[in-house]
What does this fold into?
Amino acid sequence: MDELRVILLLVGIGVVGLVYWHSRRQARRRNSQPDLRLEPAFDESDVSADDDTASLPELEADEPVTAVSDEYGYEDEDDDDIRLGETRDFVGDSEESAETAEQPQIEQKIITLRLVARGDGHFNGEQVVLALRGLGLRHGKFGIFHRVEGTDDESIVFSVASLVEPGTFDLTNIREQELPGVSMFMVLPGPKDGAEAFDEMMETARALTDSLNGELLDEAGSTMSVQRERFLREEIIQYQHGLAVS
It folds into this structure.
């Protein structure tokens, strides 16, 4: 048995040596062969102008781009059909030019009041519209009423919307409408001094409250007290000071 093990060990060593010798021989043979790889050559004289462009597809002139409506079928974002609660629709246009987008954005401040009917009552729609017009407000953008500065309809000092969705005043059926109240709001910065605009809105709100025999509330639904009015006015002044500093 011991002799057999010795014989197998010698055979194994011989096989390993033979494999090593064969691999070294193959490596020397590969190193001794010349490199037959050829670099690709490009001869410009072999290519004509026609051959260079013959396989390219023919380019067509750009076609004019036509307007495409959005998924709801509207082609203009300035549609008067608005939804209550979408503040951006009341605040202003959502479109921005490239020049405006590059400018630093100014944080806006919105002051909101609510005028509601007493108890569980409602205001007659026509009565509300007549009172708003009597106080100098105009029915216009977004289908709501606005107090504008001068003759420019875009210079909106404050606005009044219905508390009935979608917030618009349908003047064609206004006599049949019953409204629980209206929302009055202003967006700063605006076309005039913030404190002056707030005083103007408060004066209009009080006159409208007396005309409709309603109840004036703040944005939280609490009665609009003198203390609350002074606090909001001071907030506006501080806001404007912050704009001046920045």
